[in-house]
Structure prediction request, 264 residues.
Amino acid sequence: MALFGSSTRNVPATSAVPRHVAIIMDGNGRWAKKRLLPRFAGHRRGVETVRETVRACLERGIEYLTLFAFSSENWRRPEEEVSLLMQLFRRALKDEVSKLHRNGVRLRVVGDLSRFEPELQTLIQVSEQRTAANEQLILTIAANYGGRWDILQAVRRMLISQPDASGEWSESDLAPHLAMSYAPEPDLFIRTGGEQRISNFLLWQLAYSELYFTDVLWPEFDSAAFDGALASYQQRERRFGRTSEQLVGHSPATLSPTDSRIDA
Ligand code: IPE
Ligand code: IPE
Ligand code: MG
Prediction:
């Protein structure tokens, strides 16, 4: 069994502050275009928003922050933009990891890293190892990540891990093999930049996340805008399939297992 089950099987405990926030950081290019700057200037400015968001999460006691930095589809962009994004990722790892470490942040990178330059792969490994004992905030960067890739690699690993199984697989057989099995599923998903789509981000894990879309472009998504998303989250009623009446006077964590489990 994974450390954290899927919310379609178990109702997770919820609280006013989300434990896990996952963000599609979109709108860098448009931010730059509005200022007649090259797209890359938007990406560079976006790194500052990452810093501010990490700080906000630390201050608000959020345990997991997951950021979509580069999708498996982003290789389709012009070669120059892809190469500048890789450079920026390398630079950010070199410049930021000490500060993350000082602040008790554990860095993890998920995605198919095999497509990255060996130097970048090593840098990722070293940064992850250096911060491995930190627990204040788990910061996950999704890089060359795709939700379908994740499910497929999990299926492959599941089949390899139990070659003799009869084929009666359940969610809890698969979940431990997903790239982010170390984290609870996101409570709150945010996408900046105005588009209302998932773009192959965490497909499995977003099954019961609260979705928040904002027109604010990522470089302008400051801590006040982040608080706006958190305030919206606090207004939501997370039912996980149950009725509103069942929730009155109960926190999901206190409902009996027969109320809260589908297939217990
Ligand atoms: C998101 O900003 C950053 C990455 C995908 C790397 P975009 O570059 O997609 O910005 P827009 O959507 O063109 O404004
Ligand atoms: C999604 O943004 C990926 C990241 C933010 C890394 P895109 O801007 O690439 O998404 P689409 O292609 O417009 O859906
Ligand atoms: Mg975009």
